[in-house]
Amino acid sequence: MTVDRRAVLAGGAALLAGLEWSETTSANPTAAQFPRGFLWGAATAGHQVEGNNTNSDTWFLEHLQPSAFKEPSGDACNSLELWRQDLDLAKTLGLNTYRFSIEWARIEPAPGEYSVAMLDHYRTMIEGCRERGLAPMVTFNHFTCPRWFSAQGGWLNATASDVFARYCERAARHLAAGIAVATTLNEPNLMRLLRSLGLPPALLNAQRAMLQAAATSSGTAKFVAANAANAEDIDSMMTGLLAAHRAGRGAIKSVRPELPVGMSLALVDDQAGGPDSLRDAKRSELYGEWLEVAKADDFLGVQNYERARWTNTGRLPPPPGATLNWSGAEIYAPSLAGAVRYAHAASGLPIIVTEHGVGTEDDSVRAALIPAALIELKKAMDEGIPVRGYMHWSLLDNFEWVFGYGPKFGLCSVDRTTFVRKPKPSAAVLARIARHNAV
Ligand code: BGC
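Above: the input record for the complex with beta-D-glucopyranose. Below: its predicted structure, written as tokens.
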């Protein structure tokens, strides 16, 4: 195995400083060989896999009448209990990194009231990663918030960034010593991206009715969740999230200054689809402020699933004959490298691919996409772009938010009643690449 375990276990700034980076020679001269110490991982998020996140805003929204959620998350993959199996799977696949999130709603079930038992739980998970040679990449907030937080207006509330920083500081005091890489927020730009790409009106109406019911039932003026907000609230929410990232980063750094901290952005590979393209305007609307604030971070997390070709009036449909994902969007393997090139050019930061994958029932599509996208990513690295790792979304088929358990993103399937995990053929494809550190 060519992955440098020392670099992984060092778990600190050296991971990102490029100190351990040097090309190794491959047994196969035509293979795209990744640098020593490259982080190979799979990603999950607490609410989507743990199950019974009953104190969260999202659990509450799932159970409202009316709700925009197709079904409730229920037991999810029961990873709150079965997380050891998840780590064993990641290890078996030859990965050296596991990206997961800690659930704020479990850690701070009431304002200012922290659960030592839940902090201990996450500390045991972090130790479990280390024991298996997996670098723990920990997201402090992957969309879900405590119900009490969102009932107070969520990220629109003027105190939101202070409240988030307090939680980050408390969690970091318990956990930061073992973490290899930390991210504050997952895809804080998502709502703006979705607004721009255009969601079906029926879904937007259902969401509006659900948020109204949530506010009424909570006895508050506004209920706002990170991945469920009405169009008119999205810009103010971005302001709150930008402040929260800054404050959260400061709080984590105050506990352990050398811990690499960043955030994950949802980044489409935006391309010009004709003269006077809207592309640059879209880029500045969707990522501009975020890339500015990220400049003070240690790295930028890139999450890419597709490309968008912009004309002077809007987005082009997928080209004829394109392979489509579960939602009808084009699957385009070079989109990851395109998004990474832009993210680095605009921020100057080292990049970690914190999510990339595809929602499809046909695992052979995933198995083909992984090497095809990684070959393109390696070309971008050969141009000089510092990419430190690749996390596939997701380790497991899991709860895909409003769409419930329909869309399948996992390298492994999960039986909905026995919770038995079963690697799909695509998992072997990623495993082979990770083990050889080469495509
Ligand atoms: C999110 C995940 C989600 C995935 C697939 C990302 O936007 O971070 O929570 O499941 O994409 O849609």
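Notes for the reader.
The chain has a mean pLDDT of 94.
The CA atoms of residues 291 and 346 lie 7 Å apart.
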